[in-house]
Amino acid sequence: MTGVVVVVVVLAAATAFGWWRKRRDGRFRPLDASADHLAPASDSVALAALGVRPGVVTLVQFSAPVCAPCRATRRVLEEARGTVEGIALVEVDVEERLDLARELDVWRTPTVLIVDAAGRIVQRASGVPAKDEIIAAVTPLLAGARR
């Protein structure tokens, strides 16, 4: 009887984790700028080292060569960039820039950061985001950048 209970508990926990992961994966989350690890000064130095230019809304993708979802994310980001004018795309190989990935609190690939024209990370997503969600996230930032 104990074995049956253990199996049921493990299956329930795995199901709950899978449901949670599916709901969260690829969704953009706004960032709390007051958090210690998101200090704008340190972020701007790391982002500049990655090639993010001030005054441009930028999508920064952290990926790895062996990551299949990273290739799908790259395609989606390029489609979004082709649809919406005025956004830049920077792809970062985490194996080459692990120090900056850690500094920006990136712990899995693919991770996409949305950087506004002021050089602040405003949203992030882990996993493959939807093209419509990317466009919805960057459009207000572009309107603010054109003023």
UniProtKB/TrEMBL annotation:
GO terms for cellular component: cytosol. One of its GO terms (biological process) is cell redox homeostasis. Residues 28-143 form the Thioredoxin domain. Keywords: Redox-active center. It comes from the Bacteria. SUPFAM superfamilies: Thioredoxin-like. InterPro entries: Thioredoxin-like_sf, Thioredoxin_domain. One of its GO terms (molecular function) is protein-disulfide reductase activity. Belongs to the thioredoxin family. This is Thioredoxin. It comes from Micromonospora globispora.
